[in-house]
Amino acid sequence: MFHIFQYRPLRLITQTSLSSMYLKLMLSRPVAFAQIWKSWFSSHSLLGNKNIILMGPPGAGKTTIGRIVGQKLDCPVIDIDDDVLETTWNMSVSEKLQNVGYEEFLEEEGKALLNFSASGSVISLSGSNPMHAAGMQHMKKNGIVVYLDVPTAVIMSRLKSMAVDRIVGLSAGNSLKDILQFRKPFYKRWYDIRVFCGEDVAAEVVAEKVLDAVKRYQDSELETFISTRSSRSGRSIEKDSRKYFSDVVVQGLAPDGGLFVPERPLPKFTAGEWQGLIEATYIERAEVILERCIHPADIPASKLAEIIGTAYGENFSCSKVAPVRHLAGNQFLLELFHGPTASFKDFALQLMPRLFASCIPRSCNYLVLVATSGDTGSAVLDGFSRLHDTDKQRIAVMNFFPEDGVSPIQKSQMIGCQKENAWSVGVKSDFDFCQTAIKQIFTNSDFTGFLTVEYGTALAAANSINWARLLPQIVYHASAYLDLVHQGIIPFGSPVDICIPTGNFGNILAAFYAKMMGIPIRKCICASNENNVLTDFIRTGIYDLRGRKLISTFSSAVDILKSSNLERYLHLIANEDGQLVTQLFNQLENQGHFQLRKDLLEKLQQDLVAGWCSEEDCLAAIHSVYSTTGYILDTHTAVAKVVADRMQDRTCPIIISSTAHYSKFAPAILRALRIAEINQNPLSQLHLLSSYSALPPIHWGLLETLKKTGNGDHQVCAADMGVLMHHVETLIQNHFM
């Protein structure tokens, strides 16, 4: 067996030598002792007996970066090509490849890895090592695999400057770019940590990133979550109140009634890192962004990449997943309706169920509760119904929606999306009642405790109060900006405005988070319909529900008066003052209003502007845009379009979030297009719309769902907490017992 335990002499520090060193240095130079001890302890605790294994394509800089990392840690450095393969074969790697050919070379290379052993070292793999499964499994047993993810364009440029014209797998029928793309899945299979290198940056900078990433990997305590209502003693929070990502995904709502937020700021990407994602696909962008937000102790990076690939792969009808389309002038549409249920909710709810299944313990069943004002319901039902059969046996979902507060097509869709582990219940009330009822169920410890003891079942939430619902939305706001750069509309660094139809404040909060992470968003424009409580609040600082009644509008998904995610934003601008947030939202609950301090209102108005749209203006916008462009907006996007027209100053592009497909709101769309007689059958309405040959075409998934639905049944109940709790218990009995 080929062993390398040290590449240069290492000092073995025993208890005796430590004591001797301690006495001498403390007597002479106590500061020097502290520095030496700190340096030794840092490298020892970082590596221990583990190896840092650098992996990536040819030209990623593995050898150079490995040497720098080794120097910083004062540990052995091993280059597989130079120190293992060529030593074993007694010839150069290129000679071996030429002698035995591609397939035999991979096998010989893998055998060399299997016969190799090292400890406490920095190891630079060859570019083709990850293609040998057994060899990589052997290496991972005692190492942390760091994937140096360098954009393909940068790699191509480097290899050209190095005059590299031959790598493993390159033949007359394959280009260098083809080989690099072919290898990516192999790298993604094995890595523990991704270090995204962005543009062509110095090796010293990348080495520091590697060290930071390894430290993060080994210390999950760095990334904890707190409640928006957590009280601080000085600047500290009780350790017991801190949660990890896997905890907050499962729990949804904090025990004190607040919402979970990261204790530390979200990671900020450099301009170079963002620019490195300009050529990337949506899935690749999602992987890089979400890996930085989800600690690998909660979900390993390679597992997360697999989940993202499944969620945004075949389930979306557009290969770009979230394409950006020019509408007119400086306005662009971010199309968020290409998922299976035709709304932006699919971006979170194709991903969140898989994250949830990865985080929950195997010893307990879970019932996921969700309230919807329209689009969330079908997205939740569809997402959880796509889980593996073994997961569906232990995870069920119940969706509450206002029976008379959604469009006929939305209701048909929710009925059609019911599966063996997913059910819908219509409630004779509005969305605010449904959402409040779920919060009350979660905070009813007697009821939740009874379900756990009696049925072995815990409750979880899938509304946007769940952090795993909010996090994926950051990706599409960042991706939209990068697409504008990629299309040559703006250079990177130029600002954009974003206008979003807003009800529960989650979507616009995700845009603000993208801004915090380094995307140059100037203003987030909040677009309301006639339920314009948010517009009034952003303009005045007064959140006032007194005397307000919910108005049923054409844009039902934003028919909301209590915006849950606003609490997260206020917690942020109030410097995480949980006591203030508790005071404000208790006052809202008990008195129906609250008012922000002047300094907080000034902060808010630096980030947000707001406007609202009447029903007449909404329909007029749909008609006007179709008449001039042939494009049909849905009712929510029309609300945002009207507000964008009023609020923008035309000094920069504005991205309007198109949050749903117009097919879901066919009666309103047909009315806007001035069709005199409208058939009440949802399927007939869609067929009529399809005859217009408009852009975008009728949504494929929605049409298929309605064809299957027919006269499907669903349960309807009164707006009574006792009745809702009975439905919850009955479902648990039927599914899990």
Description of the molecule:
GO terms for molecular function: pyridoxal phosphate binding. Pathway: Amino-acid biosynthesis. Its cofactor is pyridoxal 5'-phosphate. One of its GO terms (biological process) is amino acid biosynthetic process. The chain is of the alpha/beta class. Among the domains are: about 50-220, P-loop containing nucleotide triphosphate hydrolases (Rossmann fold, 3-Layer(aba) Sandwich); about 355-465 and about 715-735, Rossmann fold. Helices cover about 50% and strands about 15% of the residues. The protein has 33 helices and 22 strands. The strands form six sheets. A six-stranded mixed sheet has the order 10-11-21-16-17-20, with helices on both faces. The longest helix has 20 residues, at about 465-485.
What is the residue-mean pLDDT, rounded to a whole number? 88
* Structural Rg: 28 Å
Low-confidence stretches: 1-44
Distance between the termini: 55 Å
CATH superfamily of the domain at 51-219, please? Answer: P-loop containing nucleotide triphosphate hydrolases
- Judged by helices, strands and strand pairing, the structural class is alpha/beta
Apparent shape:
globular
Protein name: THNS1 protein
Cofactor: pyridoxal 5'-phosphate
Keywords: Amino-acid biosynthesis, Pyridoxal phosphate
GO molecular function: pyridoxal phosphate binding
Characteristics of this structure?
single chain; 737 residues; alpha/beta; Rossmann fold; six-stranded mixed β-sheet; globular; amino-acid biosynthesis; pyridoxal phosphate binding; pyridoxal phosphate; Thr_synth_N; Thr_synthase-like
